[in-house]
What does this fold into?
Amino acid sequence: MESMLHETQQQAEEMRAQEEEMRQNMEELTATQEEIHRQSQEAKGLLDTTINILNQLPQKIFLKDENGKMVLANVNVAKAHNLSVDELIGKSDFDFVDAKTAQEWRNQELEIIKKGNETYTFDETLHGHTRTLTTTKMAFYIPHLKQTGLLGIQTDITELQDLRKKAGG
It folds into this structure.
């Protein structure tokens, strides 16, 4: 009888120790979850700030994944396509121009990714208005996708070109 009492007391002590360990584990888990939530909110705030900065710039800025699909764009790119940024994400040039042109652009972008970067100037007509754009495209590693995509920055230099023409003639 005494050994049963001793065994029961020992089991009760073991259970108390296990309960204490579980309580400590729960406290650690709660603290970890709170820290993850805090870091997530901080990252979201930083992302929102970064997107806000991109949207304040006059350039068109976009990032395409390795398949040529938009993963990030500022409002100027979206406006050029008469879409919201959310509607633009996931689309490629094949959604906006004929297949032959889109494939030419895609091949050009794949070459740019291979060689690193390229800057060129061209005239673009959208909605009946022709603008002169300088475009820089470069290979860009996208960490969350673990792939190299294409970062593009287009600057409208139409007014600068017009001023140069007026000054020269």
Q: What stands out?
A: The chain has two domains: 1-56, 59-168.
